Amino acid sequence: MENAKKANTSKAGELETKRETLNQLHAQQQKLSELQSELDVIEAKVKNNEKLTKEETKFIGELGWLSAAAVAIASLAASV
What is the pTM of this model? Predict the structure, then answer.
């Protein structure tokens, strides 16, 4: 009986960890959607030969670490 309780507690802990990970992934997915929207705006400006703001130029400069974060998120999602 004691082993069954320990197993249930262990499974409950694992489920909670997975639930927390999924919640984090959903939050990251929402942030990625926001970033995609910003990229769409910048892409439209570039296609129309419009001048980019300083913030948009800075955003483009930070795309390297953003794409690294996206890869990390995808790796996390694959392991769940």
Answer: 0.57
pLDDT tens-digit map of 43-58: 999 999 999 999 998 8
What residues have CB less than 8 Å from 29, skipping those under 6 apart?
73
Question: First-to-last CA distance in the chain?
Answer: 30
Which tokens is 50 given? 């419009």
The Cα-based distances of 63 to 20, 59, 67 in angstroms read: 27, 7, 6
- SS3 for 30-68 is HHHHHHHHHHHHHHHHHHCCCCCCHHHHHHHHCHHHHHH
d(CA 56, CA 42): 7
Which residues form the domain of 64?
2-79
